[in-house]
């Protein structure tokens, strides 16, 4: 490809609204342009990168028996009503009407459509399992579209769905998928972790995310440096406390005046006790009303874990208004003693004695509180969010590290959630009808490319991992109008084309400085710089984008070394 013929509108300045480096660089490198909030046009250079990601995904999906399909993006509301998600999905679902006033949505995901196809066509256990996937545009009316194509409203996703006769077979495909995902992200040159995840709106019982580690990530990932256990921080398990022997003479329950002392720090300072001896009582609200969650003062309650322990539909911190409506609750002085709400406590509380809680009256706390003697706990569980340095629950001496991550992929076992509601059933060997067991598996194509930039850039621009680079080599003539230079450039270009190496020849009449700047910005891994002086000495310059190292190599012999140089990058 010749630079002068390719539409690569590079820019000197980043767009004013771009917060993260990948967004800035994708715009500056002429890869994308915004059409409306969260809606982007992908330009030729950008599309070349997305196609590379797609190709890697395709190969790995085909490898495990996935079959590619292409499903409509406009989906009838009736299907979403069957799965009950028409109401549940909320405002992210872009709902539209056709000229007959029939309701549709623009697909944010395709469980309903694929389940509808499979229930019509697959009747027997003999036709199972089946793995179908597509690479297609999704629309989600995100509350805060940002970071360019990393969190767009319209974006490319690879979504795969598998249908099985039983859970065991689903798990088998799930682990093959997990392996395929690892291969994909490795081939994309990414530093990532497979983390235990919550199954969110899609629902289901088992789920992992693939997170690319980067400071701009929106998720917190907790992982153990010793055993490799990794989890979304909201689910990362905390180690249960060691068994503790109660004190021989437990303190008595005593009410103390604590005027104006509401926070853990204030109460701990006032009573001269460590924060771990103060127990925080957090009031939360779910579909059945208010509940109380207890954690140690030096810990934070984790609503996702509490929601999973209770098994409720939703759970949110109760607002001041809801708290004040409940008699006997006073913000800052809430405690479990005498509280008429279900109490759930973190497992650390089980090992705690002689602690402090609010006294459920303004300006007062209890000291000498003991579990069981002074109040009842409905259920103990792992209810706190782990932090850096906390012990890992899965090994002896490992400690938690916490880093930011970008979720690039997500795999779920859905069970029979959709197949039961939508009656996707099959007949087993005995002729008995059962609901198919399902899995679903997504990868954000654009987000993966953007995540690669987050991990691979410098102050001059993008540094593409070889497998995602829009071109592997860029040939930069100092002066393309010089016959000998032009001749060498064309010879190298033709030879690279012949051996299947994607290269870009910068045939523009611009100054060398401009061409070098653009080459650095768009991040092609290998630059070949050809000038009349070097050439007359039988040499050309080879420069590695990543290290900025360059060396002179003999021309034309060097041409045959290029595949080897690329391999070593
Ligand atoms: P997030 O938590 O980031 O909103 P999600 O959990 O809603 O994502 P999934 O439903 O699991 O996303 O979608 C599968 C994949 O699609 C994600 O792992 C991500 O790579 C990609 N993806 C999801 N939402 C977006 C978006 N708004 N823009 C770009 N890619 C996205
Ligand atoms: Mg997800």
Indicate the low-confidence ranges by residue numbers. Answer: none
What characteristic shape results from the CA principal axes? globular
Helix content: 25-40%
Structural class: alpha+beta
How many strands appear in the DSSP assignment?
Answer: 31
Q: Could you tell me the radius of gyration in angstroms?
A: 29 Å
Helix/strand layout:
Layout (H helix, E strand, L loop, with lengths): L20 H8 L3 E5 L2 E4 L1 H20 L3 E2 L5 E3 H6 L2 H4 L5 E4 L5 E4 L4 H11 L8 E10 L14 E11 L2 H21 L4 E5 L9 E8 L5 E6 L5 E3 L21 E4 L6 H8 L7 E8 L2 E8 L6 H8 L4 E3 L2 H6 L17 E4 H4 L4 E4 L5 E6 L9 E3 L18 E16 L1 H5 L3 E3 L5 E3 L1 E8 H11 L1 E2 L2 E2 L10 E5 L5 H16 L4 E3 L6 H11 L3 E5 L1 H5 L2 E6 L5 E5 L7 H6 L2
Parallel strand pairs: 3-7, 15-17, 17-20, 27-28, 27-29
Antiparallel strand pairs: 1-2, 4-6, 5-6, 7-8, 8-24, 9-10, 10-21, 11-12, 11-21, 13-19, 14-15, 14-16, 18-19, 21-24, 22-23, 25-26, 29-30, 30-31
The structure holds adenosine-5'-triphosphate and magnesium ion.
The site of magnesium ion has 4 residues, from strand 21.
Characterize the structure shown.
With 569 residues, this protein is of the alpha+beta class. Helix content is 26%, strand content 29%. The chain contains 16 helices and 31 strands. The strands form eight sheets. Strands 3, 7, 8, 9, 10, 11, 12, 21 and 24 form a nine-stranded mixed β-sheet that branches. It has a five-stranded mixed β-sheet with strand order 16-14-15-17-20. Strand 1 and strand 2 form a beta hairpin. Helix 1 crosses helix 12 (445-455) and helix 2 crosses helix 12. Magnesium ion is lined by residues 200, 209, 407, 410. The site of adenosine-5'-triphosphate (ATP) has 17 residues, from strand 8, strand 21, strand 24 and helix 12.
